[in-house]
Each structure stands twice: as C-alpha cells, then as structure tokens.
Amino acid sequence: xxxxxxxxxxxxxxxxxxxxxxxxxxxxxxxxxxxxxxxxxxxxxxxxxxxxxxxxxxxxxxxxxxxxxxxxxxxxxxxxxxxxxxxxxxxxxxxxxxx
Length: 99
Prior knowledge:
Layout: E1 3-7, E2 12-16, H1 23-30, E3 47-52, H2 62-67, H3 70-74, E4 77-79, E5 91-95
Parallel strand pairs: 1-5
Antiparallel strand pairs: 1-2, 3-4, 3-5
C-alpha cells in the first residue's frame, strides 16, 4: 500500500494512495491549499510538480499537451486535475502554479 503526500502553499497532508482519483481531487479531499479554477486542464492554476511516483499516474493528457511545454513534463510538472492515480505507490506532489 502506498502513500500520497501533497504540499500546498502552507499545508502538507498525506493519505493512503487513492487509486482512481486525480491529484486535484485528493488535494481538495485533504483540504490542502491548492489553487484551481476549471478542473478541465485549461486554466493551469492546479499545476504541480510530481517529485516521486510519476509511474503510478496516467499518461500525460491531450489537455496537458495543449497547455504545457515538453520541458515542463521532463521536469515532472503535471496539471493535477489531469493527473489520475492508476496504481498504489508512494507519490509526492507540490503545488507549483505559474503565478
């Protein structure tokens, strides 16, 4: 069984890895201070950097490709509304919006 750790601006929380949830859904559930606006992958306010456990997430979505650059993906950035946990494992993500 894995653990998900999410770090917002001032709040950091952990929970057992919620398979099937997006990182944004988990952040909202944990009440982490995590900005978002649209939850469809267009506003990019929910951008985060996955520090650990990227292999447990779904592949980069079309919405992410339309909004972000390849260099960002190489550095571990994802849109948390699009990053869905597909299997148990340890995942660490930090909220890092553009602004």
